[in-house]
Amino acid sequence: MEETSIQKKKLSNSTKFTILAVILIAVFSFALTPVTFQNDTYYTIKIGEHIQNYGVDMMDPFSWHEDLKYTYPHWLYDLITYWIYSAFDMGGIYVTTCILSCVLGISIYIVNSKINKNQVIAFFIAIGSMYLLRSYITARAQLVTFILFIWTVFFIEKYLETKKKRYGLFLVAISLAIANLHVAVWPFYFILFLPYIGEYIIANLGDFILYHKIGIWSKNRKIAKYTKLLNNAKDETLKQKYENKIAKYKEYVDTIVERVNKIKSKREEAKKEPFKILMENNSAVKGLIIIMIISALMGLLTPLGDTPYTYLIKTMQGNTTQNINEHLPMTLINESDVICVFIIFLAILIFTKAKIKLCDLFMLGGLTYLMFASKRQVTVFVLMGGIILGRLLIDMFKRYNTETKNFVNVLIKPVGVFLTILIVLAASSYYAKPKLNAEYVDSEAYPVAACDYILNESDIDLENARFYNEYNYGSYLLFRGIPVFIDSRADLYTPEFNPRSEDIFTDFINTSNIGVFYEDTFEKYNITHVLCYKDSKVNMIITETNDPNYKQLYLDDNFVIYQRLNAKLQ
Fold it and tell me: What is the mean pLDDT of residues 377-386?
């Protein structure tokens, strides 16, 4: 009776801590969510509106360049975002982003708690992960895929643990969702399967003992050969010879089998207490491979044709990844947060008794490589790394005979609750305070007043105008209904996606960096108007040289508009 009451008390404390953790994670995630939108949000709304009216037509309607094909890489997210915008305006998108941010933080907590069976560690990992992801919390399709990625790992782990088919169905459903919500990251869904498959292959190779298996196979073939000759032999001398050969090879096979059994025995002993790497030969991985193959077929269930299978390849072939900041390789010295995470991993692995699963080692190594190759992949590293870190911490505590369940009882006490709430609220206040006076559209980063001038005060003929604009605010221009030279849908303007005589993206990069004379580019595209940052290199040269071909129509603290006088009339 006493034992039952203790169990109920423990269950009660566990439930109380979960409620506390979920509330605090939601508060912290809400505080991290920015009020101000970034450039992708604007074209997302406009593309969603276009899909609502015309469907997925695989053509771009927003640039003044003619006949540009567009792949609509997150068509479903764009459409849903437009529905929210049309019903609730910008405030609806902000609230949705806040909700998704909270769902992400809570998902990280739940998945870590379920996999590693420790609420306290899961709580701190969730808070830490959201802190590291703070720069990537925005109204973009990636926020949804972060949530789907963390649940992908959960369903993979649960399938390998239980072999229940329903987890496989969830994985297939996630693949279908990502293929329609954010096809650019769909290939990374399959990367999450590879560490588990890699561990299974290595474990099987270790058990196979290739050299000895080949030796047994070759000797058995010779035994079969001489047995056949023996059965057909008439001469007693030959029979004796063949019998001796057969006996010799059987003895050799027995020797190999005995040696193999000794090696297997030693390996089984080593598996019980490995030095640093834990390896499991889980037969459920074979089912996981089948699920992975079925999931790969989900790319066919989109309105995008072969885009799910070709998008990443075309992107990697182009030069956008070498010129867009988030695609550039990571410079570790500039990423103090990542350095701290690496130090924690290394300290646990080197200076403690904790051991790491081989699949976790593969995952950690692979995501580290991807992160250094493209710093935006720090997001997946954080999501998956949190699970691995939690597993390492649990293993470490067990090996030092530390009872982690007591942590819940400590934190659920009044003092623990007070301190936990105080720390999280203080951190939330720190990140929320600068956003109190923020607006949905940053008029310093986006040409709000300049667009008002173009649409309301000027006599510019938008049907025939060809604006030159810069990459970072092109999406806002098309959101306002102004045809653009370029916007943050970078792939749209590359020859990999639109084979043509002009490489629009490269021409923009060269022009904005003054790698070529701006007038050459403007003449090539017959630019009629120029809208650029006041402090841009193009504007500085036009201003300093008093270029007579450019008539200033508009100027504010951040943007300037010119009419190009020598443009050819359409």
Answer: 93
Dist CA 271 CA 268 (whole Å): 5
pLDDT at 10 over 60: no
Q: What is the DSSP-derived secondary structure letter of residue 555?
A: E
432-438-444-448 Cα dihedral, nearest 10 degrees: 150
| Interstrand relation of 559-564 and 356-357 (parallel, antiparallel or unpaired) | unpaired
HSE-up (13 A, CA, CB side) for residue 464: 7
Res 2 pLDDT > 50: no
DSSP 183-197: GGGHHHHHHTTHHHH
The position carrying tokens 């923009």 is 508
Look at residue 334 in the predicted model and tell me its pLDDT: 82
Cβ proximity of 439 and 35 under 8 Å: yes
What are the structure tokens assigned to 498, written together?
């639109």
Q: Tokens 């789907």 label which residue?
A: 148
> Would you say the pTM of this structure is higher than 0.85?
yes
CA distances (Å), 510 to each of 345, 497, 515, 520, in order?
A: 42, 20, 4, 11
Taking phi first (over 0 means left), then psi (-120 to 50 degrees means alpha), and beta for anything else, what does residue 51 get? alpha
> 346-384: buried (b, 16+ CB within 10 Å) or exposed (e) per residue?
eebbeeeebbbbbbbbbbbebbbebbbebbbbbbbbbbb
Q: Name residue 214's amino acid.
A: I
Query: 552 has which bridge partners?
Result: 562
Res. 463: pLDDT tops 70: yes
What are 294-342's pLDDT values in tens digits? 999 999 999 999 999 999 888 888 777 777 777 778 887 888 888 999 9
What angle is formed at CA 559 by the lines to CA 556 and CA 565, rounded to 5 degrees? 100
